[in-house]
């Protein structure tokens, strides 16, 4: 249970985040407990992971802990410094002294500089709003899916602290109440300036077997050439307190970007907890070409932006698609940037900076080739002009770090190829569903989508298991062949099921247009086409995919499974 606020010097109300428990964690013996910042670092070796109220809260808290770690250690400066930390079970001992030195900055209730808030923030009418404004409801506006229906009337101080961190990272866009002193106010309102900074990212971080490993794996050394580090980099609590208005500036390092103040907010509270909030826009931050400052997302080139701004290259964050599992996007995690470009052309995609960092660790021998990490994939999907959160992405992909090795690219290429095998095979399954529907005289789009969902669901766990064991399985080419055989068998059985369930109308068939004028399509011919297509997709072609009526290949769906992303 969270302790009530105390009093600091001179009667200042105190909820000290360095000593008061407020971060929920899962320990290595399976217990869920609440720890203070000091306890989190002291017990990081026995803590399995952070447990947020939402996955996005976990991501935001990991970034907060990383900012503290970078600042407390003032580094690491280079690979050797990181290796010393990795080898030292007491690597976070300096964090305790740091928290002591900056204890006043971590008081959630400080009247002058409350943690990640703006003291005295108020609207012209002195309105205080419901805590629903900072407590994310997913799906938004659906009270039947929340334990706090229909409104959030009160939060403990520990809960409020977590949601403050989350609001800066993932708050929705939309029209917000204007604060006194904010020069962006028009008619008492501030018009949409976008979501919190992390809300526009396809969040990725490397997860180890303990919180200690997780923090160290994502603790990027300052001599990393793919990121920009500046001597003046510091987190939000070591900057001047924010006023009501937002500032136009660019973050100068990871400590800055991890604690970016995209909102201005102020909690209202009594002795028993937090009762309301004032929330407005803070510092806007454009995502264009931020890939050298933000390491926890993949990036994609935007041809539309390049054409519009007449500059190249322009990279934007590669956001997650809620309907696409992480294993299907393995290329965005393991593809080397040199392979993602064409000759001198800039790469079409960049993998996350944290994975570029781990690629360096394994390439230079600091991590063993068989070391297993989980690439955690977390993000928010917004709807209605980004004013609501429609869905969350929370997934992971366990993989050996060998897949990130910069010189030994064979394993990574086979992993990417194996995911493409699955995509091709599932496309063929969708074609079968379409052909069966056409044979029965109905439209095939619904059947195609259902068949694809069935195929990807059947292949997901086998692919994950295959990938996790790839580094220990010997020849990667041989393992790719083993995978293709598994896909052929699994998808073949799914095809058998679709054909068996096709119904009498599909078996009887009907005439459809073809190059030769007309073609009698029934379940038997659809079956034959399916076997030929599947064999060809998996490198086992026997030529039977051609139509016996006119000698031309049967129609195939041109749509691929890559997620649609905005320009």
Automatic annotation (TrEMBL):
Region described as Disordered: spans on this chain: 537-567
Superkingdom of this protein's organism: Bacteria
Upper taxonomic lineage: Bacteria, Bacillati, Actinomycetota, Actinomycetes, Kitasatosporales
InterPro entries: CRISPR-assoc_prot_Cse1
Protein name stated in the entry: Type I-E CRISPR-associated protein Cse1/CasA
């Amino acid at each position: 249970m969270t302790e009530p606020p105390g009093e600091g010097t001179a009667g200042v109300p105190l909820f000290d985040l360095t000593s008061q428990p407020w971060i929920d964690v899962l320990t290595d013996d399976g217990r869920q407990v609440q720890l203070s910042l000091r306890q989190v670092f002291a017990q990081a070796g026995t803590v399995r992971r952070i447990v947020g109220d939402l996955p996005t809260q976990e991501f935001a808290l990991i970034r907060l802990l990383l900012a503290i770690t970078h600042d407390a250690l003032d580094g690491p400066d280079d690979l050797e410094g990181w290796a010393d930390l990795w080898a030292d079970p007491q690597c976070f001992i300096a964090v305790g002294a740091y928290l002591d030195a900056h204890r006043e900055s971590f008081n959630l209730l400080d009247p002058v500089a409350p943690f990640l808030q703006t003291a005295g923030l108020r609207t012209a009418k002195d309105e205080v709003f419901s805590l629903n404004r900072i407590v994310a409801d997913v799906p938004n506006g659906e009270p039947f899916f929340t334990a706090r229906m229909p409104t959030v009337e009160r939060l403990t101080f520990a809960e409020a602290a977590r949601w403050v961190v989350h609001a800066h990272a993932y708050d929705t866009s939309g029209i917000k109440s204007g604060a006194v002193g904010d020069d962006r106010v028009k008619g008492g309102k501030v018009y949409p300036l976008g979501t919190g900074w992390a809300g526009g990212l396809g969040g990725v971080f490397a997860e180890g077997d303990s919180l200690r490993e997780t923090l160290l794996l994502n603790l990027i050394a300052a001599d990393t050439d793919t990121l920009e580090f500046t001597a003046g980099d510091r987190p939000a609590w070591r900057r001047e307190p924010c006023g009501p208005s937002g500032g136009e500036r660019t973050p100068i390092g990871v400590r800055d970007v991890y604690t970016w103040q995209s909102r201005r907010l102020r909690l209202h509270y009594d002795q028993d907890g937090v009762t309301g909030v004032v929330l407005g826009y803070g510092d806007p931050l454009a995502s264009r070409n931020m890939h050298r400052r933000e390491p926890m997302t993949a990036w994609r080139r935007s041809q539309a932006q390049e054409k519009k701004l007449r500059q190249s290259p322009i990279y934007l964050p590669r956001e997650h698609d809620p309907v696409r599992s992480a294993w299907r996007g393995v290329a965005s995690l393991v593809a080397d940037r040199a392979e993602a470009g064409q000759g001198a052309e800039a790469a079409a995609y960049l993998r996350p900076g944290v994975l570029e960092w781990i690629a360096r660790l394994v390439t230079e021998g600091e991590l063993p080739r068989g070391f297993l990490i989980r690439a955690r994939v977390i993000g928010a999907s917004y709807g209605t002009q980004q004013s609501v959160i429609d869905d969350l992405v929370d997934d992971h992909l366990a993989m050996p770090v060998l897949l990130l090795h910069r010189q030994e690219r064979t394993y990574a290429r086979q992993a990417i190829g194996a995911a493409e095998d699955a995509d091709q095979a599932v496309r063929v399954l969708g074609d079968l569903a379409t052909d069966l529907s056409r044979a029965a005289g109905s439209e095939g789009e619904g059947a195609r989508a259902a068949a694809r969902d069935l195929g990807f669901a059947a292949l997901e766990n086998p692919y994950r298991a295959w990938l996790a064991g790839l580094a220990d399985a010997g020849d990667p080419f041989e393992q790719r062949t083993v995978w293709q055989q598994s896909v052929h068998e699994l998808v073949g059985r799914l095809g058998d099921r679709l054909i068996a369930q096709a119904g009498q109308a599909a078996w009887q068939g009907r005439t459809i247009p073809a190059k030769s004028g007309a073609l009698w399509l029934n379940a038997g011919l659809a079956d034959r086409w399916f076997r030929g297509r599947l064999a060809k997709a998996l490198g086992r072609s026997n030529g039977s995919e051609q139509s016996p009526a006119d000698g031309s290949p049967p129609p195939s769906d041109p749509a691929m499974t890559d997620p649609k992303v905005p320009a």
